[in-house]
Amino acid sequence: MQKKFTVKRGVNGLGLFSNIPYKKGDKIIEYVGEKITPAEADRRGGKYLFEVDKKLTVDGKSRTNIARYINHSCIPNAEAEIDGKQIFIYAKKAIQPGDEILYNYGKEYFEEYIKPKGCRCDKCTGKIVKKIK
Predict the structure, then answer these.
(1) Cα–Cα distance between 16 and 6 in angstroms, integer?
(2) 77-129, pLDDT tens digit by residue?
(3) C-alpha distances in angstroms, 41 versus 48, 50, 98?
(4) What are phi and psi of 51, to 5 degrees?
(5) Can you give the pLDDT at residue 38?
(6) What is the reported pLDDT for 63?
(7) DSSP-based three-state secondary structure for 103
(8) Do 78 and 93 form a contact (C-beta atoms < 8 A)?
(9) What whole-number percentage of the chain has pLDDT above 90?
(10) What confidence tier does 33 reach under pLDDT thresholds 50, 70, 90?
(11) How would you class 105 by CB atoms within 10 Å of its CB: exposed for 0-12, middle for 13-18, buried for 19 or more?
(12) In a 3-state reduction of DSSP, which class is residue 124?
């Protein structure tokens, strides 16, 4: 059975790359981790905290949560959606084998963690390459 993903060097450190094709709307992966309160999330801090709602945050720092390797992009090919107390990543457009899976982390995360260091996505670094069909 073919592995669905490969973790390797991406746009910003390690990234999650698809080994199989996805169509727009396909569920790619679930972002998983310890479910904690926002107060505990504030106490811990960290880059892998995903706020589900005002009462629940998922701490996805465990390396068993391979969705943690999905990098930010201002022009993402995937998006996160919250369904109850679960976080799923869906394809925003077709994703081909070898493509890095990317989603927009949102304004708050961008302002706190990405903007101070500079965004390294293809749009912000000017590396957008038009694909020839």
Answers:
(1) 6
(2) 999 999 999 999 999 999 999 999 999 999 988 888 888 888 888 888 887 65
(3) 10, 9, 33
(4) -75, 120
(5) 96
(6) 92
(7) strand
(8) no
(9) 72
(10) very high
(11) buried
(12) helix
Tokens of 73: 């992009």
5-29+60-125 fold? Beta-clip-like (2.170.270)
DSSP-assigned beta bridge partners for residue 133: none
Residue by residue, DSSP assigns 12-77 as TEEEEEESS-B-TT-EEEEE--EEE-HHHHHHH--S-EEEEETTEEEE--STT-GGGGPEE-SS-S
49-83 in b/e form (b: 16+ CB < 10 A) is bbbbeeebbbbbeeeebbbbbbbbbeebbbebeee
Residue 5 backbone phi and psi in degrees, to 5: -140, 155
User: pLDDT: is 6 or 115 the higher one?
Assistant: 6
Query: Which residue type does 87 have?
Result: I
What's the angle, vertex CA 117, arms to CA 110 and CA 32, rounded to 5? 45
Residues 6 or more apart in contact with residue 63 via CB below 8 angstroms? none
